[in-house]
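Retro notes - structure team

What went well: the batch runner handled both jobs without manual restarts.
What didn't: labels got mixed up in the shared folder, which is why I'm recording both outputs here explicitly, each with its sequence directly above its tokens.

Job 1
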Amino acid sequence: MGYDAKGGARNRSSLYAAAGLEWPNDYIPEDEIPRYNDYPFCVDVSNNRLLASLDRSAFVRRAVVGVGSQDARGSDAPGVYTKKQLAYFDGHCGLRMSIDSRPFQQPSLSFEKGIVPVFCFCRRDVEVMLRVFVPAVYETKASAVFLLAEVRNQSDSSHTLNIELDCEESGQSKWPDLATDVTLIADGNTDNHGSCQVSMDAGQMIQIGCICRFAVDVLPSPRVVTLEEMDCALEKVLESVGSQGVLEVPEEPWVGEELTRAAELARQSVLQLADGEVIGSFWGSNVNPKPDVWMRDFSYTAIGLVDTNPQLAYRCARYLCAASAPGEPWGTSEEGQAGESSYRHSLGNACMGAVVLSMIFRRYGYDSVDQPDSVIVDYLHQLARCMIADRPDRGSLYATRFISDGLSRGDFHTGSNMLAWRAADALIEDFHALFDNSTIETLSSIRSQLVETIETLCVGSFGQGEQFVEGAYADGTLVPIHDAEESDLALASVYGFTKRDDRRIINHMYWAHSTANPYYARISRGIDFWDFDGSNGVSYPGHLCLLKRTRNREDLRQAFAAIRRTTDLDGSFWWWPFKHDETDANRVKRGLGKCGWCGGEFVSLILHDILGIQTDAKTSSVSFAPYLPWRKASLTGFAFLDGTVDFVVDDKKLSLVNNTGRDIHARLQLCMPANSMLEDVKINGSSRRMEAQLVRLFDSSSVVLKEIVGPRKRIDMTIAIS
């Protein structure tokens, strides 16, 4: 991740190495041309209350704080149920440094633990390591970006370090401005005059701090913050690696780094009020002044947060429950939609609250988060009533007008009905105590009916073999397209509707990334979305579908390479990174904004489909069944029960370490090379060949064993093949 001092991509192949890094002075606000704007490069920091975007020199260029939300149903575009109310900063805010009155070179960028951006400035053997972060807690009425610099004089002579604060607003924002000030901290003292000069002896190391404070109204008088307190705040941020743990892939280190960065992209996309209430998301983590909350984007972000930040995921699920309220009218005045319920307006949006809640409870247990309050309980009752009242006739499916903002394909949208199946499953299995026996029996019948009908009505053949389609008509006609902005088919295995190697999903993704799909773009080798201009030749949710285009390990290797080529230098995904009519593969754009949707989706696909990790807190069970294009990988610190679990795959060996205080029921599945034969399988050195089960996974046979792993114990499964 990151770039070197000359602005080149470091240790990675990225189109963005040629895209330019400077923040343009004449940058046009999104209010003017949101769809066509090319965003400048930025690195983002957030505690979900304050979100800030930094340029390549570590200056805060934009910052935003949420001040409220408003119901937007019936008065805005489909898929937008609420709007954020914001306070905003646009300009520049940070430190200017020089050595002996000469400026530092442009910094290089890296990330500490994949979380905190580190800008490294150098001149005359003086090195500045500048870490930028937003502390979890700062003040009640103000939020802040902390800049903590470690300066080392590595030369044999003394030098003078000059530091000056620089803060200026652009005046472009149409939102209420955030009140802003900047404080310099040197030698443990606060200097509000905004500059200092330090003489550094040979070999000396010093610390300098800077706090950029933002408040919705008038800034309170700043409390004195010491460098020691800034150090402590930094350590707390560095300890906040998500519940997914740390992935290491020796053959391809980028993949492990990208998992952490994608988790951060998803987390930073969510905005909360001061009391912790979630009020929606942005397109991604980069600051923009658009108030819209696109419900489907937000939902996929929340799905990724289930594995990385359960407390935030739960607050997101509650927001989904409150915002989508299935039984309440949509209320739009458009012809044919007057009085239409949210459930009929967007079936998928209406179901997502139950789906995310269920994922959290099954992953962590029912006591891991707050018990459902009246908002959630009322939503679940509304959802059950709507599912039963609108129950389709046998051989039919639920109709929905929109996926989220885009019109659904056909009379019946496949992915939305898969979500309805998953929501019914959640109501039956996770929330049955809220309903009487008759309701549960009816929902159980609906669940079975949905599986049967989806697998008959929404499957066809279009040159790649039998495949699911995006939609179907009541007369049996199918919709042979994939427009990129539909991810429920890609996540069908995460929902539990299909197995991860279901040929009908794989064949659909092969077909989608071919010229048979009218939305496929030859130049960018991605899937387009926009029908009438050249603004977005790759819509990134479609690009991530490459991870589901897997018939063998080489397919998976190529998918990771394609994704790596189109991620930015900080590891972020951009919604539209390529123009449809572009003819030069090195000319790219940062279109529309970063993609929190794909941050969440990437996390889910890596953990559940690639690493093959499944958990059930209720039964204390874990499944580890990796299918990888690499020989070795490890995931350490994966949160489960009252502790963590470590997973390791090393060629012909799987290991699981139980770092909890309880027994774990482990299911281990190790893939053999294609066309190989199993000779023996051992658990901790003892042969278990007679107990092993052989199953098929993608193009290989794999060995399955089940074992109870005691607290603080390790289990190793090894195979011998010929």
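Job 2
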Amino acid sequence: MPSGAPVLNRQFVRTRVSLNGHIVSVVSESSLPAAPSLTLRHMIETHLAAAGPRVLTAHDRLDTAVSWVHSSEIFEIGPLLTGGELLLTTGLGLAGLDAGTRRHYVRDLAERGVAGLAFEVGRSFNAVPEEMIREGSAAHLPIIELSRIVPFIEVCRTATTEIVSQEVGDLRLRSGLDATLHDDLARGAAAAMIEHIAEVTGTPLVVVGSGGALLAVHGVDDDRAAWRVVDGAIAAQPITLRGREIGQVFAGPSASSIPAARVQALLGVGVGPLAAVLTRSDRRSSIGAQLVAELVDRRPLRRADLLARLSTSGLPVGDKSVLVPVAGHAPDTRMVETVLSAATDLGGLVHATVDATVFGLVLTTDAGFTDPAEQVRTALADDPRRLGRLTVVVGNPCPLADTSAGPGLALTLADELRICSERLGVAVELRSAGSTAADIRAARELVCDAAARELSDGLRSELSRIIAPLVRQDAASSSQLVHTLEVHLTHGCSATRSAETLHIGRQSLYQRLDRIRALLGFDPTAPAMYASILLAINVLHSRTVDQR
């Protein structure tokens, strides 16, 4: 049974100080009474309304928690109470007593922590005795005068039923949240924990590390909004591990009617699993993997949520940071993960495997003169651990600056990851069809190849007819004329580079090109023909894959 002791809610004050030239946040704490689940005001307005209640004293104590409703006419009832009760009486036990004894009665109730005294007049007393009113004011004990007769047993029954029902409901709510959080803990899903706590409490949440840095947020638009949650928190709990505080979780005000005391209790359920997941050795990689998986599923995340989770994953995001999406395929996904790790030195990496494809976000910095996508492509291509059966597509850079507070950045990243996945399919097909394409490609390089797969049957047939003589010759004599033309065009018609790639002499290359011109009846290396010829070869590759 609740003791009726005041429920305490931590209130935190954030100050900013300079440490070695850097601004850090220091969070201090004080304890203040929290809004209870069922208050004396609620009891008066709900369960005593039919009795014509009138509050005579301590109007500022109507938000006191009520733990039980009890009726008694015993004068010496005080020692039998534990605090937090709403006591109902007709004053029968006070009739015939002197004023000093009645004052002692009120003072004793106040000292026991009774939430309020409801005094029915008209039976034992025509009005609440004046000395009791004065003592109630002095002792800050709310005294409520009831001018109409109501069955106390009915008031006790309905009020107590509500109290018990709420306690049972709270217990079920905490139990359900605890089970959900332990499922999240098993998966290492710290972000899911924050989201589930926020859903149950109906409040925005902010997790601040012991050093004052934002670790995770949910339900706020940016870091300023996150700090406003900290400053105006209605409930908060320290996150501790082996007696050491490693952070704080704050719940901000919301439109929800859930009382602050219940929010405080629910935060208490969450801090244990949060402490465990935040200190796991693989915490950063698991948080990053969960984030990438959610983006692949196109889950809308607010900018503040996204940046906080990237930071918690170990990526030092800043105003000049750029995220470059990547997608990779190999017989063993660990081959892709190994190569992607080469991009870590650029700034950081988070990745996840979804349906046998490895998706990642590489953090780099917009230096103003270097293409971030090319930076990533070069880092991956130069990695000596790269194996031949691996294919990776590097997507378009996504700057973090000048993005909206809402889910725009997350949706942009989701779209770019989807494009990487689609282009990865094209790149794998090209390599399967015998194309000379490199194993590390930029998504923008593959737009034409993707477009070839979207053309109408009529256009595909027209393009196929352009190089049909070469295809027939290759089928008849294995002359590799189509392959030779593709290599020559993709190398800018450089005879030296084309011959090196084909592993033939320049004279042999010239002979093949002459044969190609003779079969086609025109010069396919003329600049005006580049696009049509390459598109025709792309259509050929896509048809070769379809036939397989």
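One thing worth noting from job 2: Residues 298-449 form one domain.
We'll revisit the folder naming next retro.
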